[in-house]
Each structure stands twice: as C-alpha cells, then as structure tokens.
C-alpha cells in the first residue's frame, strides 16, 4: 500500500493529534493548534474540524499543517512514527491468499445463512397473511395469502430444527434446503425490490 492508503486504513486524525501532543477530551474536543484557541473548538475523530478557524481534514492533513510538510511527506512521517509498513513505488495490490475454511466453518456459515433467509421468509409470510387476506368470502385468494397459509408452519418447523435440533437435524435442514434457501432468498429480494416500486 502507498503511504496514503496505509494511513487511511490504519490511523485516525485523533491518533496522530494525540501522538503529536494534542490533548483531546473524552468527547473528542481539543484546543485547535492552528489558531489561538482559548476554549476547545476543534472536533477530532477520524477527521478533524475546527469550528473557530475552519481547519479541516484527515490524519495526513493534520500532520501536513502541523509540521509544514507536503501531504506525501506527512503520510510517510505518520507511517514511520506509527511503525506501519508502506510502499513508495507504484501501487500494486497485494495478492491475497484465501484462508482455507474448515468443514465446520463452511457448515456453520451455511447454517447461519439458511437460518437468516428462513427467518426473513417467515417474516414476509406473516406480513402477507394479513396484508393479502381476503376482505370478504367471495374474493379470490391472493397467491401470497395462499403461500403464507401453506408455508408458515413448515418454515417455523425448519427454524425450530435449526434452533433446537441436534447436529443431524440441522445438517438435514442445511443440506436438504440449501438449494431452496437460495431460491427463497432470490424471491425475497425480488419481492422487496418490486414492492419498492409499488408493483406488489
Ligand atoms: Zn482552529
């Protein structure tokens, strides 16, 4: 990473301000070092902003102003002072080796996903059950209302298995419904985006 990227992803304005001697209160206020400030009028967090003189910026800007350095030299100074590695050549993204997941992790992730999607679906079905309920006996049932009636018990049962079942119950749900879960997830997304536009 370049010095700028290294600073951006590792260091806040508050950290540099404190390292270079600024006293920052618990609420993130400090006396501004860039004008004659009697009461703390600078807010320092990820970035800094002075309500007195208008000084404003990120960690690099702070150091650049404070030490009169160019932004690049300020970024390099921060990297050095915080002991962060940086590259000075043209930026090449690091080749990231994917950490290998254990079978337990893979199962756990599939299980969590399954659970979340089924919960979402159940919630949606419950909404449909009231929202699309026929207003009078002669009215034809809305497909969403039928789906709610057909599916709610079943989905509740699957969620129960995931919550309270032993490993083999849970493995059954995850493997047998994995494909269906993806399908349900797609439908939920579709439904949500169509209801945004008032179609459903
Ligand atoms: Zn100021």
**What characteristic shape results from the CA principal axes?**
elongated
Provide the β-strand percentage band: 5-15%
Helices and strands: which structural class? Answer: mainly alpha
In order across it, which strands form the biggest sheet? Answer: 1-2-3-4
Radius of gyration: 28 Å
Give the biggest sheet.
4 strands, antiparallel
Instruction: Please give the alpha-carbon distance between the first and last residues.
Output: 47 Å
Low-confidence stretches: none
Number of domains: 2
The overall pLDDT, averaged over residues, is 90
Number of strands: 4
By DSSP (H or I, 4+ residues per run), the number of helices equals 7
Percent range of helical residues: 55-70%
Ligands present: zinc ion
String of helices and strands: HHEEEEHHHHH
Architecture overview:
By secondary structure, this protein is mainly α. The chain has 2 domains: 3-81, DNA Primase, Chain A, CATH 3.90.580.10; 103-196. 58% of the residues lie in helices and 5% in strands. The chain contains 7 helices and 4 strands. It has a 4-stranded antiparallel sheet with strand order 1-2-3-4. α1 (3-10) crosses α4 (71-81). The chain is elongated, with a radius of gyration of 28 Å. Bound molecules: zinc ion (ZN). Residues 32, 34-35, 37, 42, 50, 52-53, 55 line the site of zinc ion.
